[in-house]
Amino acid sequence: MDAALRPDVLIAGAGPFGLMLACELGRRGIDCLLIDTRTRVADAAQANATQARTMEHFRRLGLADEIRAQGLPPDHPTDIGYFTRFGGRELARLALPTARQARENVKSLGGSWSAAELPHRISQRHVEAVLLRHARSLPSVRLRLGWRLDGFIDDEAGQSVSASISPTTPVGPARSTGPASSAGPRSHEDGAPPAEPALRIRCRFLVGADGARSRVRNLLGIQHQGISGVRRDFMGGRMLAVHLRAAGLYPALAHSRCWMWVAVNAERRGFMCALDGDAEFVFHAALQAEEEEAAEHWTASEAQRIFDQAVGRHLPIDVLSLGTWTAGHALVASRFREGRVFIGGDAAHLFTPTGGLGYNTAVEDAVNLGWKLAAVLQGVAPPALLDSYEVERKPLAERNTAYARRFADSVGHFKATERLEEDSAAGEAERKAASDYLNAHARLEFNIPGVTFGGRYDGSPLIVKDGSPPPPDDANVYVPSATPGGRPPHLWLDGHRSLYDSFNFEWTLLALGPNPPDATAFLRHAAQMGIDLKPVAHPLQVLLDLYEAPLVLIRPDQIVAWRGFGAEAAHQVLAQAIGRVPGTEAGAEPGAEAGR
Ligand SMILES: Cc1cc2nc3c(=O)[nH]c(=O)nc-3n(C[C@H](O)[C@H](O)[C@H](O)COP(=O)(O)OP(=O)(O)OC[C@H]3O[C@@H](n4cnc5c(N)ncnc54)[C@H](O)[C@@H]3O)c2cc1C
After folding, report:
1. pLDDT tens figures, 269-322
2. What is the pLDDT of residues 86-143, one digit of tens each?
3. pLDDT grade, residue 175 (50/70/90)?
4. Residue of 137, 121, 141, 101 whose CA lies nearest to 55
5. Cys bridge to 371: 284, 347, 395, 556, which one at CB 3.0-4.6 A?
6. Exposed, middle or buried: residue 547 (CB in 10 Å: 0-12, 13-18, 19+)?
7. Which of 33, 36, 393, 451 has most ligand 1 atoms within 8 Å of its beta carbon, as the pocket-test mutant?
8. How far is the CA of 11 from the centre of ligand 1 (A)?
9. 3-class DSSP assignment, residue 463
10. Cα torsion at 350, 353, 356, 357 (round to 10°)?
């Protein structure tokens, strides 16, 4: 079989999860094939919030500056504002730094926001475009956009997966290797004859990165667990999504600019995000079930009518695209793996977008799975390491969907009455109460260092526990802690260099304080085991105080695997962290690299 049809990893789906996984694997030289039914990146009606931890992972790949430079102009406010109508009375506001301020402010923040990166407000399509460019630049990553995964089967010996893929577009020279086309995908059903036949791909691992309606998950028969169909006045039920241009919008709105405007009134709840700081916005509105608003069939004129309700008066818009979606899911797949097939991102979990956690959780799935697949394929770790993907990521998906649901309950069950817009003392009192409530809510949903930095893998067999208690899990508070299992505490060195920038791309052994113990045993054992471990010494006492131990082992996904006071147990620590069963040295999967 042609080598191009025998990648180590086939990734079906080039959304944020699949793209990030391709980047993680490609950076490690892993031969992978990334396919997607689409020929272009996502449109604007999806994620618009990149959390700080996701930005730290983009920084690890060297992409954070490029991503932060895109989206809103550097000085555009990123406030979240609540109004009776977008053009009505202001009820509440959470002021947040602009992209330019975020770059500077992060260096002087401490406590909960002690970080290498702050969040960034950017449409998912820009992030996907950067990830796509990066994936394309990596020699071991091949792309076939406009190709669909049809099915797959494990080979009889259990050593590989055989998958069938077929083109969804007539072949053009740019499709598989050139820049993403701006033309929409076309399928066989459109009547276009396929220019290439279906192909059979033999891979060592298949990853279902194919989104909410995942074919991979369905073919594996994996069910969702959790809650769906929750009804709320807002963020629970059918929603209208409108991508629009409105040149006159900023001048028409009296209040100072936001990144997100939320309309809170008895007639039409909705929100709107600024995309380019000029005239491009995405608008989402709750549809009313009792009115039987069948928005699936709506045209631009109905979108204009709903938009006008949210604004409070007529303001002409150009509708660029129109769609519907359902809010009210908090679902997690019962399994993230079946043999050599994995799922991640929306294929494995479905969120209500409050808190903006769906795509961010997808990125962290990819970060977790990426180094593990690479370590197994490179023969550094045994196949058992891959069991830890579900062990570590499923609880995180359950945690994050629960947080998103809590935020949705908080804003969606708030009752917006007609009195809220009344010119009367009663109306004034109602607005004061709404203001108090929504100001508190905004801080609950949008100031979430605990959610973004506080995810932990305490139940993982890879984590070498030291008996210290993990900090409490709180959405709005992050307590920096080097208790193994969580994100390493961050520090700006010399006021401008991130501690994380000193970490190795793979494993790091921090030697902290003025007199760290001898750690050569770690390096010796790591070399014997084929682990790429870099010693990094930081004599600063403040770092020793922060980590509460002079030796700290950091995983490739920037998680504390172990900390301690000496290197006596170096071999056991490394073996556990890489997934080797204690007491055995049987490690790499047979014929890991050579056998194909
Ligand atoms: C209105 C809205 C607002 C949102 N806001 C936020 C937010 O602010 N923050 C946040 O974190 N998240 C948000 N999300 C969620 C976010 O968009 C998703 O969680 C994210 O896109 C998931 O990424 P993914 O790669 O797992 O899946 P997707 O982005 O869905 O990508 C899946 C890819 O697989 C491809 N595919 C499907 N089937 C096949 C097949 N058989 N073969 C090949 N390819 C296939 C698809 O074409 C698609 O490109 C929002 C979602 C919505 C709907």
Report:
1. 999 999 999 999 999 999 988 777 889 899 999 999 999 999 999 999 999 999
2. 999 999 999 999 999 999 999 999 999 999 999 999 999 999 999 999 999 999 999 9
3. very low
4. 121
5. 556
6. buried
7. 36
8. 14
9. coil
10. -20
Looking at residue 170, what is its pLDDT?
Answer: 57
Which tokens sit at 313? 């008066």
Contact by Cβ (8 Å): 353, 300: no
| Nearest atom within ligand 1 for CA of residue 346 | 26
Tokens 């279906």, located at residue: 198
| Cα 291 to ligand 1 centre (Å) | 29
Angle at 339 (CA atoms; ends 333, 343), nearest 5 degrees = 35
Do the beta carbons of residue 341 and residue 216 sit within 8 Å?
yes
CA dihedral 173, 179, 181, 187 (to 10 degrees): 60
Ligand 1 centroid distance, CA of 208 (Å): 12
Give the confidence band of 587 by pLDDT, cuts at 50, 70, 90. very low
CA gap 111, 93 in Å, rounded: 23
Ligand 1 centroid, distance to 520 Cα (angstroms): 45
List Cβ neighbours of 534 (8 Å cut-off, separation of 6 or more). Answer: 503, 504, 506, 507, 508, 509
Q: How far apart are CA 76 and CA 253, in angstroms?
A: 15
**Contact of 209 with 347, CB cutoff 8 Å:** yes
Q: How far is the CA of 63 from the centre of ligand 1 (A)?
A: 20
pLDDT tens per residue, range 331-356: 999 999 999 999 999 999 999 999 99
Question: At residue 234, what are phi and psi to the nearest 5 degrees?
Answer: -145, 140
Which atom of ligand 1 is least distant from the CA of 345?
26
Residue 60 in contact with residue 500, Cβ under 8 Å? yes
Q: 10 Å Cβ neighbour count for 283?
A: 25
**What does the alpha-carbon distance between residue 197 and residue 210 come to, in Å, rounded to a whole number?**
21
Ligand 1 mean position to 164 CA, how many Å?
22
Question: Quick one: tokens of 441?
Answer: 């809510």
In this structure, are strands 533-538 and 551-554 parallel, antiparallel, or unpaired? Answer: unpaired
Lowest mean pLDDT among 154-158, 268-272, 279-283, 387-391: 154-158
Closest-CA residue to 49 (of 75, 23, 71): 71
Which pLDDT score is estimated for 134? Answer: 98
Q: Give me 221's structure tokens.
A: 């028969």
Distance 226 CA to ligand 1 centre (A): 19
Taking the alpha carbons of 561, 563, 568, 569 in that order, is the dihedral positive or negative? negative
Asked if 232 and 238 count as a contact pair (C-beta separation under 8 A), the reply is no
Distance (angstroms) between ligand 1 centre and the Cα of 217 equals 15
For atom 16 of ligand 1, the residue with the nearest CA is 359
Q: What is the DSSP letter of 3?
A: G
Ligand 1 atom closest to the Cα of residue 165 is: 42
Q: 16 C-alpha to center of ligand 1: Å?
A: 7
Q: Which residue minimizes the CA distance to atom 6 of ligand 1?
A: 47
Determine the Cα–Cα distance for residues 250 and 274; give it in Å rounded to an integer.
10
Contact between 68 and 56 under an 8 Å Cβ cutoff? The reply is no
pLDDT > 50? residue 172: no
Q: Which residues approach ligand 1 with their CB closer than 6 A?
A: 12-18, 35-38, 42, 45-49, 124, 148-149, 209-212, 215, 241, 284, 325, 345-347, 353, 356-360, 362
Which residue, judged by its Cα, is nearest atom 38 of ligand 1?
210
